[in-house]
Amino acid sequence: MSWLEIVALIAGFLLVIAIIWWVRTARRLDGLHRTVVQSRAMLGDALAERARESSAFAACRALDMAGAILLAEAAAEATEAEHLPLVDDGLVLRPAPKRTPVDRRLLESNLSRTLRLVLEDLPAEELTDEQNTRLSKLNEAREDVRLSRRFHNTKVDQARRLRSGRLVRLTKMAGRAGLPEPVDMDDE
């Protein structure tokens, strides 16, 4: 074998390795983008469930009048904003409304703060069985929101890290997909 054939063989081998790397990385990036979109939908569902449970808890007479009114208003505002996107990064295919004056994350954060405020000194031993059941469902919904948001933000971080690589940017592997944005809000 001549040196030219050896160089051609090595170049062909390196080309095959590069193509395999590119295909695997593109598939991984596509999978991460899909997971981000799915996890954002799960987070939206969890937020909607929390708003419904908050509204139901406000109506079950476990809180004083002021707390019930505060919680019902915060839950109603969050429910009205369910159709708004959590972030506008272009990954979700449904058309987003043009620049809305309301940020859904602020409304959801307001509901979180209101829940903390009204549940902070709630005497659990004075609640009826029905009220305890409502409180338990509300706490489950709150935990679902926390876990969904953490999962979503973890996947966003993985996608952003993969997209920040030089070769991924150089080969424009992400195509026209928007850069995933984390959902930053108060969910405690």
Blueprint (SSEs and pairs):
Layout (H helix, E strand, L loop, with lengths): L2 H57 L5 H16 L23 H16 L9 H35 L2 H5 L18
How would you describe this protein?
There is one protein chain. The chain has helices at 3-59, 65-80, 104-119, 129-163, 166-170. Helix content is 69%, strand content 0%. Helix 1 (3-59) runs antiparallel to helix 2 (65-80) and helix 2 (65-80) runs antiparallel to helix 3 (104-119). The mean pLDDT is 89. By secondary structure, the protein is mainly alpha-helical.
How is this structure best summarized?
The chain is mainly α and 188 residues long. The chain contains 5 helices and no strands.
Structural class: mainly alpha
Which percent range describes the beta-strand content?
A: under 5%
Q: What is the succession of H and E elements?
A: HHHHH
Helix content: 55-70%
- Major pleated sheet: none
Q: Give the end-to-end Cα distance, rounded to a whole number of Å.
A: 69 Å
Calculate Rg over CA atoms.
24 Å
Average per-residue pLDDT, rounded, comes to: 89
> Ranges with pLDDT <50 over ≥5 residues?
none
| Individual helix count | 5
Question: What's the β-strand tally?
Answer: 0
Shape: elongated
